[in-house]
Each structure stands twice: as structure tokens, then as C-alpha cells.
Amino acid sequence: MKTNIAELRKANKISQEELARAVGVTRQTITSIEVGKYIASLPLAHKIAVYFGMAIEDIFIFEEE
Predict the structure, then answer these.
(1) pLDDT tens per residue, range 35-59
(2) Closest by alpha carbon to 3, among 50, 64, 47, 45?
(3) Burial class for 48, CB neighbours closer than 10 Å (0-12, 13-18, 19+)
């Protein structure tokens, strides 16, 4: 699943570590989500969306396979 997390972080000058701390995960989890190796759970996706003040579907791009 593709995401806009890296772009949002960079635009807001937020490190992976800062985002991870804010949503209660490790930096490695944020890295894995950004590179597509891990799909965030719905509760985590919600926390990330709330953090950026956006809708989940504006951050996570669902593409049918």
C-alpha cells in the first residue's frame, strides 16, 4: 500500500522518530510503512491521520490488485 507519510513528514519538518513517538510505534515501523513493507493497522492509520489532521484515505492510497 502506498502512503504520503514521507512527503507529509518532510513538508512539516517532522522526523520519523517524532512521528513514531507521537503515534506510539517505533521509528522502524514508520520506515516500514513508508517503504511499503508493512501495512498499518486501522487504529495506527487513524492515529497517523489524526496527527496530520487529515482523512485516512488522504494519507493511505488503496490500490486494488
Answers:
(1) 999 999 999 999 999 999 999 999 9
(2) 45
(3) buried
Per-domain boundaries in the chain: 2-59
Query: Does an H or E element contain 3, and which?
Result: strand 2-3
Classify burial at 53, counting beta carbons within 10 Å of its beta carbon; exposed 0-12, middle 13-18, buried 19 or more: exposed
**pLDDT band, very low/low/confident/very high, at 62 (cuts 50, 70, 90):** confident
Superfamily per CATH, domain 2-59: lambda repressor-like DNA-binding domains (1.10.260.40)
